[in-house]
Design a protein that fits this description.
2 domains
Length: about 240
């Protein structure tokens, strides 16, 4: 496929911060890759190099943040030659690609949800997408519908289900006055806790617990955007440990 114009659109939701959403490449050095990196959306594009390899055509654009929130996000990529409009959740970013070529020449397959192992170092270090996609449209072709009706030939569908599995985790929302109190285990000499959190507030108490037998307490809080752990031990000389990250 050698195209001057491309329109690619889809919706996705995921709780993973890394994953290839779609990928295509050609023998002339052309490639297009849309992926999540550190919960941000990254579009890598190259419209080809000349025979001397002196034209640097690689272009990379990053947009969005916190896209691993398991909410639906919409993407539209509109390309006309070197002019690109990248729209994420109605926020459009316009840019021009590097190099001097206008056509995207993809003579291998396009893959959604991952990329085939090509032997290149870049391919085996990238994770496959894990989550849900819908309304995949590539240059007027409804890929989701064609895949569901098995009208894509040739195609390789690996462990794909046409339903969206919801995560088993149950989120809890806290306002300025709410808290959750759970019973401790006085007979245990090990304290262990883990949780995920997301907040816009730079300050707040995340966890507090007294140790049994008046041995002290542990406190985890956010202070000016940093997470701090404070451990107070009442029976030793150096009775306070502070860890900040």
């Amino acid at each position: 496929m050698k195209t001057l114009k491309d329109v690619i659109s889809l919706k996705f939701k995921t709780s993973e911060s890394e994953g290839v959403i779609f990928h295509g490449e050609g023998q002339q050095g052309d490639y297009i890759t849309l992926e999540l990196k550190k919960a941000k959306l990254v579009l890598n594009l190259n419209l080809g190099i000349n025979q001397l390899g002196s034209i640097f055509g690689h272009t990379s654009v990053t947009t969005g943040s916190l896209l691993d929130d398991h909410h639906w996000h919409s993407i539209i990529i509109e390309r006309h030659g070197r002019n690109i409009n990248l729209t994420l959740d109605r926020h459009m970013q316009h840019f021009r690609t590097n190099g001097e070529f206008d056509y995207l020449d993809l003579d291998y397959e396009i893959t959604f949800g991952g990329m085939p192992f090509s032997g290149k170092p870049s391919s085996n270090s990238r994770k496959n997408f894990k989550g849900c996609m819908e309304s995949i449209n590539y240059n007027g072709n409804n890929i989701t519908d064609l895949a569901r009706r098995k009208k894509l030939e040739p195609s390789n569908v690996g462990n794909l289900s046409f339903s969206c599995v919801e995560p088993h985790t149950v989120p809890v929302f806290f306002n300025a006055t709410s808290y959750l109190e759970v019973p401790g285990r006085s007979s245990q000499d090990v304290f262990s806790v883990s949780f995920l959190f997301r907040t816009w507030n730079p300050n707040g108490l995340l966890l507090f617990s007294h140790f049994s037998d008046d041995l002290g307490n542990v406190e985890i809080d956010i202070n000016e955007g940093k997470v701090s752990v404070h451990i107070n031990v009442s029976q030793v000389k150096k009775n306070r440990i502070d860890i900040s990250s």
